[in-house]
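Before relying on records like the one below, remember that each one covers exactly one chain. Contacts with other chains, cofactors or solvent are not represented anywhere in the record.
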Amino acid sequence: MVERQKDSWENPTAFLALKQLQSNPRVKYIVIAAPNDACHLCLSLVGTYPKDQVPRLPYESCSLPHGCRAFYMPFIEEVYP
């Protein structure tokens, strides 16, 4: 898990998306995805995480000039009740 000391760099949209996924009982895990042309640091975050151990996005040390391109996706085991 990537630890962050300051939350001031966080993107409000990504922060809200993460909070919504974490509060949804149907979401079992949270996946971080990134396009193939993302920086190596963002690509290193790609994976499936427990809901309480998800790294914050955008990744603070991203080296792309336009910023981090990683994003959150839900991992849902049961689609319909």
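The first strand starts at residue 27 and ends at 33.
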